[in-house]
């Protein structure tokens, strides 16, 4: 597995990825790219060391939580972590056109868990929420979890609005956790002004 060190990533206009290995590129974003190393491990490589350090810090903060991937190895510009097998929550919800109660409960738990861990960004893009084959939800991409200040899940709510499921989730939230519902409702009202 050590030949993954041959992969290089540079930040130019977007990312310039040089992958002379057999490892499959399975995703890329603004800060880096993810490669599948094995059935249960993946490699996230960064163009800039500071992004790697920020994600390592967040993953360490959440190392005892079930919502973040396990870390196996870290380097100057990479993290080898648990590969989360599943599908993005967006695809999952689009196929159902609804939010099953167990999923709504997990989502509420995830956002409360982010706060408990100490994440200052109590939000996750819907594409960073993965529904595993076992029906569990994990959160990936934590580069900004300790950097940005988002005390309510506005990106997630925006995605649910596009899926026409925000009202469904808010009704579920109001029933399952009224206190959190009213707290987030205040933030939603402030964002409208």
Automatic annotation (TrEMBL):
Residues 48-157 form the RIO-type domain. It catalyses: L-threonyl-[protein] + ATP = O-phospho-L-threonyl-[protein] + ADP + H(+); L-seryl-[protein] + ATP = O-phospho-L-seryl-[protein] + ADP + H(+). Keywords: ATP-binding, Kinase, Nucleotide-binding, Serine/threonine-protein kinase, Transferase. It holds the Pfam family RIO1. Its EC number is 2.7.11.1. SUPFAM superfamilies: Protein kinase-like (PK-like). The keyword Mitochondrion does not apply. InterPro entries: Kinase-like_dom_sf, RIO_dom. Coiled coil: none annotated. It comes from the Bacteria. It is an enzyme of class 2 (transferase). This is non-specific serine/threonine protein kinase. It comes from Neobacillus ginsengisoli.
